[in-house]
Amino acid sequence: MGPHGARAWRPGGGRLTDLRLRGIAKRFGAATILDGLSLDVGAGEVLALLGPSGSGKTTLLRIVAGFERADAGEIHLGADRIDPLPPERRGFGMVFQHYALFPHLSVGENVAFGLETRRLPRAEVAGRVAAALARVDLAGFERRKVAEISGGQQQRVAVARALAPEPRVLLLDEPLSNLDPALRERTRRELAATLGAVGITTLLVTHEQEEAFELGARVALLNRGHLEQVAPPAELYRAPATRFVAGFVGRASFVPVEVLAVGGGRARVRGEVPGGELELAAATGVAPGAAAEAMFRPEQLALLPEGAAEAVAGEVAGARFAGATTLVRVATRGGELEVATDGDAPAPGTGVRVGLRRGAAPRLFPAGGDA
Amino acid sequence: MSRFPSLGRWAVVALLAWLIGYPLAVTFAAALASPAGFGAAFAEFARRADEWTALGRSLWISTATVALAAVVGVPLAFLFARAEFPGRKWLGELVALPVALPPLVGVIAFLYLWGESGVGTRLVARALGLAGAPWRLSGQGAILVVHAYSMYVYFYLFTRAALARFDGALLEAAAALGAGPVRRFFRVTLPALRPALAAAAVLTFLTALGSFSAPYLFGGSYRVMTTQILASKQNGDVDLAEVETAVLTLLAVAGLLVARRLESGAAPARQRGVPPARRASRSRLAAWALGAAGWLLALALLAPHLTLLLMSLVPRATWTTELLPPVLGLANWGQLGRGAGALVPVGNSLWMAVAATVGALVLGFVAARTAARRDRAGRAAELLIGLPWAVPATAFAVALATTWSVDRPWQGRFLLVGTAALLPLAYLIRCLPSTGRATLAGLAQLDPGLEEAARSLGASKLRTLWRVTVPVLRPALAAGAMLAFLAAFGDFVLSIVLYTFDTRPISIEILSSLRLQETGLAAVYGVILTALSAAAFLLLGRERER
Q1: What's the whole-number mean pLDDT along residues A32-61?
Q2: Class of domain A251-366
């Protein structure tokens, strides 16, 4: 196939292909929506594009799908360059946020829509529709009207419709945000199972961390039009590359500190931290003398008995019961620390000392980054 | 679709401008540059007292019609929105019927019922023991009565819709604050209805200003602008007709602009909550009285059309001085089968209305698609689609006759006058606001994700349009098509200016039958027109609700 991918998508695809974005840029007037962004989704990989609203993730997905044109950049699908192609020739399956099921067609006709242009024999279309519906546990729903089925069923029809033509890439735009919380978790598990069974290259856009972590093998965190970090969920949580990632993924407390020395990816700092001085892993951009902030996860901290060394003093400001643990907010001179504790929270106003748990690895970031 | 190419959008605007704006511009230019010198025709217009009289009468008739229609329509709306009585639902729909019936047929039916030798007039005269008719159905009184009869529907429908959206808790809040029923009506209900009343008033005013059938048949020497234009044109005074057209058009557009200003001042009536519950009358007697009044009203509204049916069964010259026709038969209907030409007008009306409706649907869809995006091309398209609605039909007809009377391709003008193409084209343009605005309303509610979903499933733009957009918009398109067909099929105003013998529609045949004293045959055509209009109303109305 040629470099411009004139015959990019061929029916009956379904083979694994990787998706590569190179330098994608988009502006609306003076506002930069996407700032020359590059991203690879491996063949058969599920990549979750996570970010707050307004980060540009939906714009990026619409550019990949072909509904919007990028100002600059290229999109490659396997050996083909596909960004000059109209949406219908890119061969992507897409699940829309509000599902976009055709209200004038039945469930079966919706699923068959993507097969109609293929000139397949009727029996084969019917067979594929049945198989696609069976895959999402909706066997026998062909003749139902779209308005007659529940929200969760509509979501599954949308997935079946997108997968029926055996696309090379699946795009999911906030596929679960329209469901109520109880249903969302179950549907998320089912979707994860379906994606695992099909093994299709998938780009998922979401603003929900749980969704990204359960469905994505890797998570790309987008902020103000640029990628902050692309990594598996655990790495994103344990080794956030930037202060933004640390604050967006999971819970974290930040304490301003003085940087004494930097070297080998680690730094020594002084301030209102357990023990007064601490050595920790440093992100890029940290320098002696420059303002910096130490980041602690609640489970890295512990409430210590009165008089314990290697601790920082504070006063309980409040607490929130969170099931297995209780999150205690402790006001110190350096700011508020959130501490996870197994026991009961002390009453507000109680003086406490906060120390590091054994093996905890807090991190250091340059101050004044993206909040 | 996010990228409708800019060039294509401007091409649509250019097409609309050529069809709608250009004829008006040509007529204005022709009116200014009359043979006697620049502006001479306007000076002549200003010198003539009868022109000023006609202008004044047009304004007076329109204003008085608004007042009368409001007096009939608003209380009726309150009755059907707030009271409960036997037969309310059925009657509520029936009361809106006059809007679906061709204006000319309504006028003729009125003539048969309340004209000097009408059935109703004879009954009243007999009851009062008079030798002759107690009134004459002519002049401004007759025009106003017919206007009120056919246009109260606007006030009725708009007020009912507003009352259905009205939050009953507002009335309860006012009552809790100590306001009595009168104060509640004037301080709470009426202000909430203001936008609806303003919209109804504008629609009624413009319809009355452009009204032609009633002044033409009842006016006699009482000329308004629309009849004045036709008289000038038929007298061969083309320059004067063009000036009159320009003046009437400007008047209508000015009225529209003033109305827009008034409307924009009104608070948007976006209400939450539920309307106050219907009150079933406390006593059985009152309920029966209301019910009886409702049924009498419905009968009064349907009486003209029932009279039409009756008259179609009265053979020629069998009814002279008797109170009721002595002989009934199908002789008039038989005339349809006799002459080969008798059914030609029915066929003409049908094919021209269908062609115009299909054309208006396609063009209206393309125009609405362009207007849906709020850039400059979109706003221009929206303005152009609205224009044929504001400009009186008589004025539009003269503008079309002026523009398409010469063959100058380099000016974008072709000789269409005298061909079979002009009348359907005129209908098409006249119907464009119906289909265009209906499509626009449908597009506003269309989920853009549907089209994107179709594209992502491999459907081309054309296939997406055909398989997704059009089917989803079907109710809106059906509503637009229904209004377009009714307007084209029942048209009289454009037809009388632009028809040729070969394309004469039913309305023209009704008129010539009347001139030949063939009252029965005129009634037959009237019944056919009414029946087919009602059929289209029901057929497309059902489609609209799917």
Answers
A1: 92
A2: mainly beta
